[in-house]
Amino acid sequence: MKCLLILTLAMSALILTGCSATPRDMIFVEGGSFEMGNPYDTADPDEKTLHEVRLDSFLIGRCEVTVGEFAEFAEETGYLTTAEKGEVASVYVGTRVEKRPDASWRHPYFEQDETHPVVCVSWHDAIAYCNWRSVKEGLTPCYSGRGKNVTCDFAADGYRLPTEAEWEYAARSGGRKIRYAWGDEEPYMHGKPAGNTRDEAARRQWNITNVWHGYDDGHATTAPAGSFAPNALGLCDISGSVYEWCWDWYSETYYDESPIDNPTGPAAPGADELRACRDCGFACAIRQEVVSSRGKGTPDLAFSWGGFRLARSIR
Predict the structure, then answer these.
(1) Distance (Å, rounded) from C-alpha 19 to C-alpha 22?
(2) 123-136 and 67-77 helices cross at what angle (nearest 10)?
(3) Is pLDDT of 156 > 80?
(4) Under 8 Å CB-to-CB from 200, ≥6 apart: which residues?
(5) Which CA distances in Å does 92 have to 64, 76, 170?
(6) Please, which residues have CB within 8 angstroms of residue 227's CB and are 6 or more apart in sequence?
(7) Residue 79: strand, helix, or coil
(8) Is 70 exceeded by the pLDDT of residue 5?
């Protein structure tokens, strides 16, 4: 009877999670359909086209990759980020953004500890981390190739970056029609602060305007991962905190040609060779905190309000 009970509980866990191998730091996202894009009057041109998307189930990181997790990778492999190899990173200095040759994930020009999301990491740094962690855990790496010829094997079981569509679907708690990860109003979930946003703490630090007046998350820059109330799927820091790299090449007109099923972005880079990113930084304007807002940058770009979150395919 005891063995039967254990088996029954184990089967229930499989039904609840949808994946028997779901790591504790990942969230199972059940696939489905949703309308991708920005229906609000604040929409930028690249996000205005509303279009149907159908996604398979996938896993996504509960939080962004932290300083401590990235440090383990760097120390074990001797990896140097693009910023450490000479590509100058951009950082907040007072109310300005400046390029500083000594800036890196180790020195982002504000205080962090190992629990904070890692910043000043490029798209190339993020995929290097994904492959390392995949190998470390006995999984098949998703990425191969170099430079602009990197390819992703979405059938592999290793870690990768989410696609733009996966990120938005998860940020919308399974495709719900909401403006922010927490809903349509101020950044609270069940009465608890739900995001590290441009707020009263940022106003005190930098004397800036256009903040969530009356909302104070206590952090002008990054906060420890998971500090705030998660969205309905259990994802933390999905609106605010730091930008998060996605897999996709960026195209301003991609929504006009996107396939319905599991879109992964343009097949080839545009003239500017930009990769997409989502979310927004801790001091970005409020209008950029909507879950449909799109960002982009060159794959070697490193900046102190940008990091990444992991994803995995389920096959």
Answers:
(1) 6
(2) 80
(3) yes
(4) 211, 212, 213, 214, 215, 216
(5) 20, 29, 29
(6) 196, 217, 219, 236, 237
(7) coil
(8) no
- Six token digits for residue 68: 């401590």
96 pLDDT band, cuts 50/70/90, is confident
Cα-flanking dihedrals φ and ψ of residue 189, to 5°? -130, 120
> Residues 6 or more apart from 119 whose CB is under 8 A from it?
105, 108, 112, 222, 242, 303, 304, 305, 306, 307
What is the separation, in whole angstroms, between the first and last Cα of the chain? 33
- Tell the residue number behind the tokens 């998307």, with chain if given: 53
- Centre a 10 Å sphere on the Cβ of residue 235 and count the other Cβ atoms it contains: 23
- Calpha distance 211→226 (Å, rounded): 22
Helix (H) or strand (E) holding 145: none
Residue in the structure block whose two tokens are 């199972």:
28
> For 174-191, what is each residue's pLDDT tens digit?
999 999 999 999 999 988
Distance, CA of 169 to CA of 65 (rounded, Å): 19
Asked if residues 168 and 292 have their Cβ atoms less than 8 Å apart, the reply is yes
